[in-house]
Amino acid sequence: MSHSTSSDEHTAATDILSHSFVLFGALGDLSLRKLMPALYQLEHAQLLSQELEIMAVARSAISTAQLKQRVEHTLNQYIGADQLNPSSLSRLLQRLRYCQVDLTQAQDYITLVQALSSWQPQVTFYLATPPNLYKDICQHLHSAGGVNSFSRIVVEKPIGHDLASSKVINDALALYFDESQIFRIDHYLGKETVQNLIALRFANPLFENQWSNQYIDYVEISVAEDVGIEGRWGYFDKAGQMRDMVQNHLMQLLCLVAMDPPSQLDASSIRDEKVKVLRALKPIKPDEISNHLVLGQYADGQFEQAPAPGYLNESDANTSSNTETFIALRAEIANWRWTGTPFYLRTGKRMANKVTEIVIHYKANSHYIFNPDQASLAKNRLIIRLQPSESISLQVLTKEQGMDKRMQLRRDPLQLDLAQTQSNVRIPDAYERLLLEALKGNQSLFVRRDEVEMAWQWCDQVRHSFQSADQPLIPYPVGSNGPTEANDMIQMHGHHWYEDCDEI
Fold first, then answer.
1. How far apart are CA 196 and CA 428, in angstroms?
2. In the predicted model, what is the mean pLDDT of residues 463-474?
3. In what order do the strands lie in the sheet with 216-224?
4. How many CB atoms lie within 10 A of CB 433?
5. How far are the Cα atoms of 204, 250, 494 from residue 337, in angstroms, in the given order?
6. What does 214-272 look like in DSSP terms, one character per residue?
7. Cβ atoms within 10 Å of 167's Cβ, excluding its own
8. SS3 assignment, position 432
9. Which of 21, 223, 230, 287 is most buried, taking the most CB atoms under 10 A from its CB?
10. Which residues make Cβ contacts (< 8 Å) with residue 88, sequence separation at least 6?
11. Which of 495, 497, 190 is nearest to 348 (CA)?
12. Which helix (H) or strand (E) holds 341?
């Protein structure tokens, strides 16, 4: 299908707003917990086309009326009955239809395509299903005549568990869809603060003119979770934190921080610059592992003043598992902008706090004229926080007030809290933005095939290195900041994690 259609057709497809939306796996956790609330919020904000029709697809033998009941129950649960606007809810429910499909049975897709025959041909298919079903869904949709040059398909991560399996999935998608029709989701790219990172960098000469190794000492990107595996032991134990978090979320944040300015704000230009960053990432060799990587696994500890089990003591656990739940690594980018400025990536489960933040540590002045005892203060830091609250803070040095203080320095924040500065504007969930952009055909917030595969290539190489080096798995208690060895690793290079900087 994709190879026989012209590039002009595919270009045209990106300018058309989809009026038909088909959600596979409509009764699954992702659909009910994230996608249906997102559709409601888009409906409430009147951002959906009046003509949009939504077909929910799943295996269960239920009616459209029963689907609507379930969706309403879901929205009451995740948004709150007191927060739902009756008119908006009614409009959304009116758009919904249901079609029972066994995703492995080709015959069922004929029924689905027939049900869609009177709908608009610009269909966006959303696959909220396990990736091992992507090939079957695409093949059966195509065989039933449900795919055309204006179709779009949205797929969730993980796109494989390594480079080889990623290529298999991408090859299956490419048989039936052109790359311009494929929307690979990384929900971090839909977060408001991630979008603000683009504006902060490229709209403000104050930052962009000093966004390089000449002025920046090091960068840290941390994604800490206070939850464990939440019943996903079977999945997570095969993945680990490298595959589950680093390969996608942290790699995307790294690219947005490190990329050069795109020529314009379109999908191709932005994604081209991200790929350049991935190409420039230096491999971590086995003999460098001890200085560049720390792996950990959470052990029994305390959470909210109550005992909490370690990873090996979770229900259904394999007590001999050596899967990492924590990873801290030092990455280096070999290009003119960043050579000599390391990027420290850190992510873990069952940590002390839930926080996602990017910290830019600026270099100190080459000539220091203030109290030598305060020399450690003499660095600015830019903190971009994505969760739990979305904010941007610039730490600057000022003088302590008072006649007796002379020129005593103190560190103060210049704080931008998005919830406060735009208190009259609701901060949308990432899936709201991503759904809307997919319906519009805008790929800027989605991941291109070469991005996925180059990220896998680098992460696979790191995994092979720490396996070859027989890197030990270090236990850390639930409710901590991870293994103390992660502190040792960064301090070995003369740096500190942000939470430790005030103690220096």
1. 13
2. 87
3. 409-417, 391-399, 381-387, 355-362, 216-224, 343-348, 326-331, 293-299, 473-477
4. 20
5. 18, 20, 21
6. TTEEEEEEEEE-SS--TT-HHHHHHHHHIIIIIIIIIHHHHHHHHPPPPSSSSHHHHHH
7. 17
8. helix
9. 21
10. 40, 43, 44
11. 497
12. none
The pLDDT score that the predictor gives to residue 402 is 67
Local structure of residue 204 (DSSP, 8 states): -
Confirm if 155 and 184 have CB atoms less than 8 A apart: yes
In sign, the C-alpha dihedral spanning 347, 352, 355, 359 is negative
Looking at the domain covering 2-184, what would its CATH class be? Answer: alpha beta
Residue 274 tokens, joined: 């991200």
Dihedral angle at the C-alpha atoms of 131, 259, 394, 425, nearest 10 degrees? -50
Catalytic residues: 249
Q: Is the pLDDT of residue 82 over 60?
A: yes
Tokens standing for residue 138: 């695409």
As its CATH architecture, domain 189-367+416-427+448-503 has 2-Layer Sandwich (3.30)
Q: Convert the pLDDT of each residue in 132-184 to its tens digit.
A: 899 999 999 999 999 999 999 999 988 999 999 999 999 999 999 999 999 99
* Number of neighbours of residue 476 by Cβ within 10 angstroms: 24
Q: How far apart are CA 276 and CA 259, in angstroms?
A: 7
In the three-class reduction of DSSP (H, G, I as helix; E, B as strand; rest coil), residue 117 is classed as coil
Euclidean distance between CA atoms 378 and 413, whole angstroms: 14
Same fold for the domain at 2-184 and the one at 189-367+416-427+448-503? Answer: no
Assess contact for 456 and 247: CB atoms under 8 A. Answer: yes
Q: What is the pLDDT of residue 501?
A: 64
Rounded CA separation 174/172 (Å): 5
Pairing status of strand 473-477 against strand 293-299: parallel
Report d(CA 306, CA 33) in Å as an integer. Answer: 27
472 Cβ contact list (under 8 Å, min separation 6): 295
Distance CA 314, CA 260 (A): 44
Euclidean distance between CA atoms 247 and 459, whole angstroms: 6
Indicate the DSSP class of residue 181.
G
Q: What is the DSSP string of 134-145?
A: HHHHHHHHHHTT
Mean pLDDT within 492-501: 86
Task: Give dist(CA 32, CA 45) in Å, integer.
Answer: 19
In angstroms, the CA 69 to CA 96 distance is 11
Helix or strand or coil: residue 155?
strand
Tokens representing 255 are 């690219």
The burial of 403, by beta-carbon neighbours within 10 Å (0-12 exposed, 13-18 middle, 19 or more buried), is given as exposed
Residue ranges per structural domain of the chain = 2-184, 189-367+416-427+448-503
